Amino acid sequence: MASKTFLQAIRDAQYEEMQRDSNVFIMGEDVECNMFGTTTGMIDDFGRDRVRDTPIAEAGMAGVAAGAAMVGMRPIVDFTIAPFLYPAFDQIMSIIAKSRYLYGGQAKVPVVLRANMIYGNGNAAQHSDRPYSMFMHMPGLKIMVPSNAYDMKGLMKSAIRDEDPVMSFEDVALWSTKSEIPDEEYLIPFGVADIKQKGKDCTIVAIGAMVNLALAAAEELAKENISVEIVDPRTLAPLDTATILESVKKTGRLVIVDAAFSRCSAASEISAIVSDEGFWDLRAPIVRVTTADTHIPFSSSMEPQLYPSKDKVVAAVRRTLS
Amino acid sequence: MKVNLSKDELAEMMRRMIRIRYFEDAAVELHKNGEIRGSLHTSHGQEGEIVGACMALRLDDYMVGNHRSHGHPIGKGAKLRGLMAELLARETGVCRGKGGSMHLADFSVGSLGETSIVGSGIPVAAGAALGAKMQGLDRVSLCFFGDGAAQEGAFHEGINFAAIWQLPAIFLCENNGYAVSTPISKTALVENIADRAAGYGIPGVVVDGQDVIAVHEAVSAAVQRARAGEGPTLIEAKTYRYLDHAANMGRDLKYRTDEEIESWRSSKDPIARFQARMLQDFKFEASEIEAIDAAVKEDVADSVTFAKDSPFPDPAEAWTDVYAPIVA
Ligand SMILES: Cc1ncc(C[n+]2csc(CCOP(=O)(O)OP(=O)(O)O)c2C)c(N)n1
Ligand SMILES: [Mg+2]
Question: What is the pTM of this model?
Fold first, then answer.
């Protein structure tokens, strides 16, 4: 066991997989200089062939990764901040997500596309998106949004070994958070939610860093004898709907916490699934705690109010119980 | 680069060009009578640049193409049955009825897929070249794309990647003068797309796309460079498409004149020109060419029969190959 940060977990997962499989390599902007600490020691151990700085050409990065993957490589592409995925949208949506299908199973595109999400820090509208639900919309992609270093490492290793394209959305607020990481190897499968805390009055499904908000809210609610069950889906595609539905069956109430904009969010999708398949288990309307549907403003007088907060989660749970 | 072609290779060039021509003749008919759904983009007139380029490759080299998709895999050596069955949306199609005319692929001959988003294949081809290089294979990757695609951002990013990493890639711009109705003169100020190669620090070559041998020589030189680790080449084949942008569009868009089409057809047809050279320069007998012609006709007819005899995919197949099959 060793205590490691979220960033170290990313680095270790990548490192171990590069050691295991010579087809794994990393490309991205400023990866050689280890800008974020996720490529520590890799130039020395794997060389510049497998840790490749790229031009600022995101469509090219995605497309080149796709082509390399189609002929047997396993590229990891570090897009750095999530909105930088947008210039690569065409390659992700039309090539990476669809090639296996379009070519009748002949193509496989085992790429890992990594993107971090930095919001709440005064970076304004263009840098602050949490865009995973846009990609959830597209069949063919797998999506992970880990909430802690332990899950990050296990999911990232699975992602790199996956035969399908995986997108990893990494909340910057988690970067320096630590988990106890076992010395021996472990993998976390996709599509398996983690129940962070058992409870009986209300289920909170929390995505990524929102798990920590949910835990804090649950602690406060416990003082009022309100018992909350917290489900961390860990991956949004595939989504472990069975675990969510089972929890709702038990509690009869559901709050979903998602740092993305509300409209067409993962929270909306989970809400729709529970309405469709778990309606008769519900004792109160589902409540979504999401980010307001406006752009992210620069000024601190405007920005913080827009995001989910512990108080909003507490209020949402109370609403389901009132 | 002068390439000495054997008589068999010359015959194969002719064979592949007319395979494309007759295959597409059949496809246009099947499309006209409603047996082929969706859009059908034909290469009539462009067979010379396609076959000249593909014949410079080995079977294990990679190829990526575009919406004008039939010629490329045929040129690369794919069998016709699976291609025709795909056009006719059958289970036995190369893409098992999921891709259709714009998205042929035959990985068994290195055809990694034709993609219908204009320009999108260019970075992918660079990536296949990167894969080959990293794996220490001496394979190259050839990308076909149009003059229209050369105006896409993906053109710039894909070629630049191949240039900076000295990847074994050949970018072949099939400049047929138009993107649908829009002439290249409206969308690019440079005289030749190949002139842009200088901007990436790689060689750019212009070649007569109606001369299969000339294209073959130009691409062979690029392949030799690529295999030697000297990086990519941008080649522009000046060519022409005889038919509408897509078959049976049913509208005369009046963006070009009948005289223009006729002048290319009558004096620059790649098949007719090559046939004349086969007889005059390469000492073929007319009967030998006739035999090739007859065999191809039979092959195409066989592919249509095979396709029509094949079942349509089970509707449940709509859900397969979205993700890799789960292995327990
Ligand atoms: C990104 C994108 N934009 C527009 C289209 C519609 N479209 C299909 S083919 C085509 C023209 C392409 O021209 P060119 O690259 O010269 O190829 P050609 O058809 O002449 O072979 C257009 C505009 C498309 N398929 N993809
Ligand atoms: Mg064109």
Answer: 0.97
